[in-house]
Amino acid sequence: MNVLMEQYDFIKRTREALFSYCESIPHADYVHQLDSFGGASMCDLLIHVSYCYRNWIGRQGLQLTEFFEIPPQPEVGVVRTIFREIDTLVDQFIHTYAGKWDVPVIVDIPWQDEPEPRTPLYMFTHTITHEFHHKGQIVSISRHLGHLPPDTDLVP
């Protein structure tokens, strides 16, 4: 059993619950930007999460540079497509670094002048915890807009 693949499968199921929920609310609320959340919308945060995966898993971990363009304020179905790309990157990343989770990789960190070493386990952990942080913000935004989100914690 590959524990990280199993863990990521839980994350994908949880993400799907969030996508289904986002489809159930009006698109205007899905893209409504709230000042109390840094001017972000639910849609903005999902796209932000995808960029984090693209950077840490795709660019830094796999040395990839080509990704498809993301349109502004995409429908949830388009965001699902973006995350299918992310799922492929994560699968490739997990297979690439199998047995090498603690071997540092030199990465560029945008807010620092010099590249630094980060382990693949760090990169994987950063992206998934980042996603869950923003998932919490997404359900909070929906509550601020008067919706009642379902439980989007780890879905069995």
From TrEMBL:
Keyword list, A-Z: Metal-binding
Superkingdom: Bacteria
SUPFAM superfamilies assigned to the protein according to its UniProt record, in alphabetical order: DinB/YfiT-like putative metalloenzymes
Pfam short name (any one): DinB
Transmembrane segments: none
InterPro entries: DinB (IPR007837), DinB/YfiT-like (IPR034660)
PANTHER family, alphabetized: DAMAGE-INDUCIBLE PROTEIN DINB (PTHR37302:SF3), SLR1116 PROTEIN (PTHR37302)
Protein family (similarity comment): Belongs to the DinB family.
Protein name: DinB family protein
Lineage of source species: Bacteria, Bacillati, Bacillota, Bacilli, Bacillales
